[in-house]
Each structure stands twice: as C-alpha cells, then as structure tokens.
Specification:
With about 375 residues, this protein is of the alpha/beta class. The protein contains 14 helices and 12 strands. The strands form 2 sheets. Strands 1-7-6-5-4-2-3 form a 7-stranded mixed sheet, with helices on both faces. A 5-stranded mixed sheet has the order 8-9-12-11-10. The longest helix is centred in the C-terminal third of the chain and has 19 residues. The chain binds pyridoxal-5'-phosphate.
Length: about 375
C-alpha cells in the first residue's frame, strides 16, 4: 500500500514512511549544509544551490503537510508570521485585500501598520457575514481575501466554502489561517480555499519548543512561485533542526488535537452557565453563533481553544489567572500543556478583546485536573475580589 493513499493518521505517524536511502534510517538525518556542489559541466542537477532557498531537511515535513492538507505543495517558513506575510508580500502595491476584524493580533498589526505603508489597501471585514464580505469586494481590485477560523480570541467561525465562492467570483484568492483547526479538524483546500497557512509553532509541532510556519497551496501557479521567491529572497527560511523537530512533533498530531478538542468541549460545557463565568466562547457549544457552520466544516472536534469571560470584570479575570496552579500563564497555544492568558493585557491599546476575557489553550492533561484547577482559581479570585 502506498503511503500517499493511507489515512492521515498513518501519514503523520510515519512521516509518509520515508526511509533514508543511504542508511536505511527510519528517522531522517538532518542536513545542515548551507551550500551544494556544482557539477563539472556547470549545472546543478541536484536541484540544490544554496540553503536560503530550500533545504533537503524540509522535504519530508513539507510532503507530510501537503498530504494532510490535500494540496499541491507546501513551504516551511521561519515562523507563522513569516509564512503569513509572504502571501501579502507576493502581491503588488495598490492591491486591495480583505482581512477579518477578529484575527490573530500580530498579523492584524502588521497589516495595518506595515502592509499599508508598503502600498497594500487593507480593509477589515466581519468575515462571519458573507454579505459583508461580498459588499467589501472591489471587482478588479481585490486580489486576496484572508480569513482565520476559528479566529483568535473570540473563536468566531467563517464559512470557508461561501467565502471562497465570493472571492473566486471576483477573481481573488482565498487564504485561510487554519492554525487553530489544524488539518485534523478542517481541510480548507477541499472547501475551495487556495492557500492554507499554519503557525506550525502551535498544533503541528505541539510541544511549545519551536517557532515555525507553513503555507500549502491548492495549485502550483504563478502566485505560488512568487511566494517561493519571497521566502528565498527575504530569507524567512526555517532552520534544518527546526524542520526535523516539526516532523517529529507531527507524528502525534492526530492524538494530541483530538485529545485537546475533547477536553476543550468538556471544559466549555462545564463552565457554560457557571455562576462565576459570564460567557463561554467556543464553537462547539450549540449556543455559539458559528456553531452550525463549524459543525459543517470541522470534523472530529471543534479545537482545543476557548475563551471565558469572567463574571466580575477585568479584576476578577486577572485574579483568576493569577490563582491557577496547573494551567500556565503564558501566551501561545497548541502545546501539550494548558495555557491561560488575559488576552487584553497582551494585545494592549486598540485591542477589540473584552477585558474580562481569559483565553484558554487546552492541552492533553487529564481534563478533571484542568476543571478542578480553574474552579478553585475562580472561587479564590471571587473571594479576593469580595464577590
Ligand atoms: C501564533 C499564530 C500566528 C503566528 O505564528 P508565529 O509562529 O508566532 O509567528 C498566526 N496565526 C495564528 C492563529 C497564531 O496562533
């Protein structure tokens, strides 16, 4: 049986089953060379010249991700931000792009404060409303629609299929930041997206010990070749060891994401309607605004990310985060350990995030430990706040 026809769990667990030709090693070697030998007749038949452009240590991880997303090709980058910004930098000054009002904060900042100076016309839209997306399209000018689903940190859901149809009708490309869903739960290319982006720092690697990003394309076309050029020329290239680490992390991707998703749903259900919690934001709750779309385009779970709005406001939220023992107060997501974060403090001035919101990244610990720890933190925080 060919690995390319195997189930995704098998592809991830075995890294597509690649065996090193020279040594028969099951686990791949790490190629660290920065440069490659030119042939006597002045050619580069190996296809390798210099490691800013690419690196044999990327091949297997890129091939695995391409298979998991059912795409045509992938490119690893030095971070999720390097991957995301490469897509925008492959456009031309004057091009109009749509991005979500609710999205990953650093990329939103880059779009508003850097991409605009560089000449892109950036418009933020409510991506949960296809009519708003349609209305924002400028025929002949809009080149790219960028979405994130579920989106940081309110976990709003965007209909990938509907948005792809709107983008394509206008001759624009749809790119999806699918970091939170991971290929385990959503495959945007199958729903009509043109490019998928992951902060591989998060679920793909899964162990909070690596910064990496990746793009996957449905078609190897002119835009994709420009993006490849951005990586090679701007140099947002991943290191060899990091590519190897990522491949190792992905071996357990399916186990980790499914465990985290199942626990996140239990935690969401436990705190939904809880006296010390004003609101639980999680697309897996039937009461969530995006639940119907999420149920259609996600399979096997709704992800490991949720947010709670603490009754009693900002002081109670900060006090709750201060009193957890097992949850770690840290930014980022998608690791084996659960993280808690007062998101408004991270985003600072201009953030649209409610100040009573705690963002939770659920790991793979026993779910009862996580619930008990949050319970005691909420109880103590409300005692301290006199509530
Ligand atoms: C972390 C993250 C990014 C950026 O990735 P880095 O590896 O930190 O550069 C982009 N989008 C989402 C949704 C993220 O969570």
């Amino acid at each position: 049986m060919d690995h390319t026809n195997a189930k995704p769990e098998t592809i991830a667990a075995q890294g597509l089953g690649w065996i090193d030709d020279k040594t028969r090693a099951i686990t791949p070697p790490i190629h660290v060379s920065s440069t490659y030998l030119r042939d006597e007749d002045n050619q580069y038949r190996s296809g390798r010249v210099y490691a800013r452009a690419d690196n044999p240590s990327f091949d297997q991880a890129e091939a695995v991700i391409t298979q998991l997303e059912q795409g045509a090709a992938s490119l690893l980058f030095a971070s999720g931000m390097a991957a995301a910004t490469a897509v925008f930098q492959a456009l031309a000054p004057g091009d109009h792009v749509l991005a979500p009002k609710v999205m990953y904060w650093s990329l939103r900042n880059w779009l508003l404060n850097f991409a605009t100076h560089w000449g892109l016309q950036v418009e933020l839209v409510d991506m949960t409303d296809p009519a708003a997306v349609q209305a924002a399209i400028r025929p002949g000018k809009t080149r790219l629609v960028w979405i994130e689903t579920p989106a940081n940190p309110l976990w709003t859901v965007t209909d990938i299929e509907a948005t792809a149809a709107i983008a394509h009708a206008a001759g624009a490309v749809l790119a999806v930041d699918s970091t939170v869903a991971s290929p385990v739960l959503t495959r945007p290319l199958e729903l009509g997206a043109d490019i998928v982006m992951h902060a591989a720092t998060k679920y793909l690697n899964g162990h909070s010990d690596l910064i990496a990003g990746v793009l996957v394309t449905r078609e190897d076309n002119a835009l994709w070749q420009r993006i490849r050029g951005v990586r090679a020329q701007l140099g947002g290239t991943l290191g060899s060891f990091e590519a190897w680490m990522l491949l190792r992390g992905m071996r357990t991707l399916y186990l980790r994401v499914r465990a985290a998703s199942a626990s996140a749903l239990q935690i969401a259900q436990h705190f939904d309607g809880h006296g010390r919690v004003a609101e639980v934001l999680y697309p897996g709750l039937p009461s969530a605004r995006g639940h119907a779309v999420a149920a259609r385009q996600m399979s096997g779970g709704f992800g490991g990310m949720l947010s709670i709005r603490v009754a009693g406001g900002e002081a109670a939220a900060v006090a709750t985060a201060a009193r957890v023992a097992l949850w770690k107060r840290a930014t980022s997501l998608g690791g084996t350990e659960s993280l808690i974060e007062h998101r408004a403090s991270v985003e600072g001035a201009g953030s649209p995030v409610p100040t009573d919101l705690l963002r939770l990244s659920v790991g793979i610990e026993h779910v009862q430990d996580l619930i008990d720890d949050l319970e005691q933190a909420l109880r103590q925080a409300h005692g301290a706040a006199g509530a």
